[in-house]
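note to self — DONT lose this again. spent like an hour looking for the file last time. sequence + predicted structure for the chain T wanted, 304 res
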Amino acid sequence: MTRRRVLTLALGAAAAAVARPGAAQQVPWSAGTERPTTKAPPNATDCHHHIYSSRFAVDPKAVLRPGDASIEDYRQLQKRIGTTRHVVVQPSTYGLDNSGLIEVLQTFGPTARGVAVVNPDVSDEELGKLHAAGVRGIRFNILAPGGATSIDMVAPLARRIAPLGWHVDVFASPDLIVQSKALWSSLPCDVVFDHLGRVPAADHPAFAVLTELMQARKAWVKLSSPYMISTIGPPTYADRSVVAQAFVRAAPERCVWGSDWPHPTEKDKPDDALLFDLLANWAPATTTRNRILVDNPARLYGFT
């Protein structure tokens, strides 16, 4: 057999491996190559991810400045784990400049929704522009050093966005969640708490506050980023899984799932297929899992 023939056969085998359904696939900003063992239902939704581009203006106060994590990179992740709908969250890196978010949403089209970052100076015209692009919430990253928003902005901005049918998205410490219980209850719109509310255990007071809000149909919790504050780590993230399971038992109709790709807080990137498979452990019943992946996001973000 000639050297050329050997090379041709090798290239043909490689191309077939790429084309074969279920083939291993490397995705930027994600460890591992295998697909999840859990099959995603039609319209499965990733309710929390980011897009980064060196073309977007960086907030001078931003501490977190990852490299480019592109639209095409994220589409590769979708192919790997099987999600089709998704929510792009404005990262702290770009502060109050949502122009990149609008561009991203327009490129993704109707399968995408967005969560923007604004302050009380935002104009009604800007809010309308964001709504037309697909934004359905505003984020308060209280934990971001030098962040563009603060907790005193939540109430006045909630009053501005409530008529649009938007929600407030909060990333805060569990202690602040407890201290601000009256605030969350008083808002004229829903509140979505990122990344399991960073609740360290199901017996923490923040868990009781969040589940009470969820059961009162005031709040939602994102089942995302189990690697944050986990002391056990992969593959089980057992300490965080206990909390996720407790949220699902308490209010499955108020839970959504998110990848947090490209995992900007993590030096060692997690395996996104493993993270998706964790949901089968957190919500073993297929009907409950489909509710979390499809029905709940459709209601919260207005997917049709």
